[in-house]
Structures are given as C-alpha cells and as structure tokens.
Amino acid sequence: MQYRKLGRYGLKVSEVSLGSWLTYGGTYGEDRTEACVKRAYELGINYFDTADVYGSGQTYPGAAEEVLAKALKDFPRSSYVLATKTFWPVGDGPNDRGLSRKHIIEQCNASLKRLNTDYVDIFYCHRYDPETPLDETMRALDDLVRQGKVLYIGISEWNETQTLDGVYMARELNLNPIAVNQPVYNMLNRYIEDGVMQVCDREGIGLAVFSPIAQGVLTGKYKKGQKPPEGSRATDEKTSHFINRYLTDENLDKVEMLKSIAENHGITLAQLALAWILQHREISSVIIGSSKPEQIDENVKAVGVKLDNDTMKEINGILNG
Asked: Between 65 and which of 1, 23, 114, 231 could a Cys-Cys bridge form, CB atoms 3.0 to 4.6 Å apart?
C-alpha cells in the first residue's frame, strides 16, 4: 500500500480506502463485513468511510456505523482513519436532516456512540444545505473540532461555488478549514475536472473520491445489447437506479475500448479505472466498495500501477470521444 497526504494537511491516507455505502449494515451481514474490513486492514488500507444513513435502505440509520465499529474493534484506534457524514434524513422530524447546528451536533454525537469511539478523524457534510446559513454550519463543525470530537472537516458533492464559499467563510471567521472533499469521480463521470478539482488543489483540500468503477460498469461485466447479469446491482431494485445512468450505449462502447488497454497492460479493467484516477496528483484516496475480501485484493493491485503519457492520452481520447 502507498499513502498520500490529505490535501495540504499532515494526515496520511491509503491510496485505496474502504467504504460502506450499499454494503455493510444492510445488504451484507456482520461476518462478511468483518472479513472485508480485516482483509483491507491487512493490505494496508487505513481509511474506512461510512455515514449515518448507510444501511438505512435495508435496515435503519446508523446500521453501517455499528457493524463497522464491530469489525474495527480489535485494531488500535490510532492505526486507522475513520470518517462519517451527516445531511440526509435519519427520521421523519423536521430537524432530522440538513446541516443545522442542532442536526450536526446531535448526529455527530450519535455517530460517535454507534462507532464506539471518542472521535472521528473526518466528519463530512454529506451534501450542501441551502436551507441553513453557511456560517451556522461552519461554526458547528468548528465547535466539534475544538471539542476533540472531529479532527478534520469534510464536504461531499459541493460544487465549485459552494466549496469556495465554505473556504472563505472559515477564513473570515477564523474557523477550522475544510480539509477534504468527497465527490464522485470515475472515467465515466468527470464533472469535478471542470472547476471543483482546481479549487480543491489550489486551496489544499484533499479529494477522497467514491464510485471509482462507476457502480461496476468499469468492470466490463455489462455488455451492450445484453441483459445485466443476474444478481448484479443493475438487477436489484434497491440499487438499479444508481447504475442505470451509466448503462448507455456510448459508455458501454467506451468500456470495450478501455478493456483492450487494460489487457495490453496485464491488468483488469477495474484496476485500470483505479490506476487512472490515482495518476491525478490532486487525488488523496479512492474509496472502493467490496462485498468479499477477494475484491479488495484485486482492487489494491491498482496501487503502484503507472500509466505513461501515451496511455493516458489514449484513455482520455476514448473518454472524450
């Protein structure tokens, strides 16, 4: 495993990290979660990512946090980086969502209890909240840092303007700054290249990106003109809406061309997709999801894969075509 700094900050995170969206606490039970987390840790992954709502689609809010805490209980707390988030609804009440001071403080405390820890390394705003004044949000996050409950402040899927507003607000009020952004980024969804990536690079904000293989499309298992494989995310009504946006003829044509490049380099398409992201110096970590330990073994093999300039040009030619 190799490690990178979280933006300009001193915290070092593994180039590949393990997330728990759509997996732990819901679809997969404690035994499989424990096996995946243990294998990830053995392979040098030190960043584990979750959220207060993960698992709620199948069970209840906080389920992923609880099962992740059990899987991590035997490892020294100082040896790994733990991240969680808040924003999405965790109940039916008017204050059970968003980024108000009330919701942020209450959900951070609830997450700490479920995670069985005194602090989280990163606490993300899971989305931007247009209904709450930004200074209220930033002050609440700063208070959590000063209390020692949060070490670094994060945002997720904030656009360029929202990110800059957060940066300037923290600077103006002398608050702890935004240290990391967690957007979606993969070969088939590159929106952050148009502003967000440049802002984060300039301001020293790390990028820990999710959905690096486009919900599985960049594994090559989905074929143009063929039905999705049984048991895949595309056939599961709980997850199909996440992946269907990628299953276009144009994208599947690109996947076939990218597969040839991967074969020429002696790696899988998924490994090529991860390695391509890691070629970008702005990236701190790539967050993978995994239902079994073997998938983690395969994904980690992308670490250290170097794609030369000609290969990067060829890939970008396909993606821009």
From this structure: 114
Are 212 and 287 contacting, i.e. CB atoms less than 8 angstroms apart? yes
pTM: 0.92
Q: Hey, is 240 helix, strand or coil?
A: helix
Which helix (H) or strand (E) covers residue 202, if one does? helix 196-203
Q: How far apart are CA 260 and CA 272, in angstroms?
A: 11
Q: Read off the pLDDT of residues 214-235 as tens digits, 9 standing for 90 and up.
A: 988 998 887 776 676 665 555 5
Cβ atoms of 211 and 186 within 8 Å: the answer is yes
- Positions annotated as catalytic residues are 54
Three-state DSSP string of 113-135: HHHCCCCEEEEEECCCCCCCCHH
Whole-angstrom distance, CA of residue 290 vs CA of residue 295:
6
Determine contact, residues 18/45, Cβ cutoff 8 Å: yes
Report yes or no: 150 and 144 within 8 Å, Cβ to Cβ. yes
- Both tokens of residue 282? 């702005």
* DSSP for residue 17: E
